[in-house]
C-alpha cells in the first residue's frame, strides 16, 4: 500500500508524499486512490464537507488513520472540526471497503459521519462523533468497533439501512435516542446512557448481547419488531420501561437481564412491559432478575459513568441456554435437548459480560 500524510502544521512541499511534505488540508487527500493509507495528524478545520472520491476495493481498501504527534497510530484521534458548519465526513456510494480509524468529528450542525445507503463494508475503529446534529447516519453491512456518538442535537447512531454491527460502542448525552429505530443492527457489549429518548431500539432478526441502558429519558431497551435475541444486560434508571416490547414485537428471546423494580436503586419508571416473548420461564430457564436489589445497580460507580460491574453484582457471570425449535420441544417433553433427534443444546458462558 502507498502512504499519504495530512497535517496542518507541515511546511514542506504540500504534496502528501511524506510527513515533512504532508498536505496541510484534508481536502487535498480527497482523490487518493485505492490501496492508500492516509495518516492524519492533529486538527483539520473544515469549510465544506469532506467527500473522498477514490474507489477502494476488498483487495485494495483506502484507510484513513488518525495518528499522534509522532505519526504513530496508537489510539490518539485526529480531530475534524466542522466549526459549527453543516459539514460532514461523507462516505459515498463508491466508498465500499473504506476503513476509518482514530477519527473524531465535532461541532457539525449537520450529520457528523454521513454514509450512503449504497456504501457496503465500511469499517470504523475508535471513531467519535461529538456535538453534531446527528452522529452517524446511513450505511449498510458495516462494522463499528469502539465508536462513540455523543452530545448530538438529535440521535446518536441513526438511520442505518441494513445489517450494521456495533461492538463496544457508546451513545451518550444525545438529545434524542442513542440508537434510533431505523435499519437492522446487531449490538454487542454497547452502552447507551443519559440520552433524551430511548437507549436502544432493537430491530427484527438481530442478536444483541451485553447491553447497558442507563439514565435515558425514555425506555432503556425497546424492541420494535419481532424475532430478535436480547441476552445478558442491564437496564437501569431510565424514565420509561426498563425493557419494552411494542405491539409489533413478537417471539423475542430475552434472558439474562437485570431490571430493578420500583423502590430499588436505579429503578426505571416502569419495569418490563408485557408482550409476546420467550424468556425460558416455561422451561425453568428464566434467569432475568426483575427485582433488582443490587446497590447502585451492581455498577462500580454509576455517578461517574463507570458501568463496569462490581464482582458481587447479580448476574455477574451466568450461562444462558439457547434452544432452537427442536430443542424446545424435547425439553418441554422432559427429554434432554441432546437426545437422539434433537439438535445440540448451546451454552454461552458470560464471565464479566458487562465490563465494557
Task: Describe this structure as you would to a colleague.
By secondary structure, the chain is mainly β. The protein has a single domain, classed as Pectate Lyase C-like. Helix content is 2%, strand content 39%. The chain has 1 helix and 31 strands. The strands form 4 sheets. It has a 23-stranded parallel β-sheet that branches. The chain has a 4-stranded parallel β-sheet with strand order 19-22-24-26, with no helix packed on it. The chain is elongated, with a radius of gyration of 22 Å. The two termini are 34 Å apart. The model is unreliable at 281-285 and 323-356 (pLDDT under 50).
Feature tags:
356 residues, mainly beta, Pectate Lyase C-like, 23-stranded parallel β-sheet, four-stranded parallel β-sheet, 1 helix, 31 strands, 39% strand, elongated, disordered C terminus
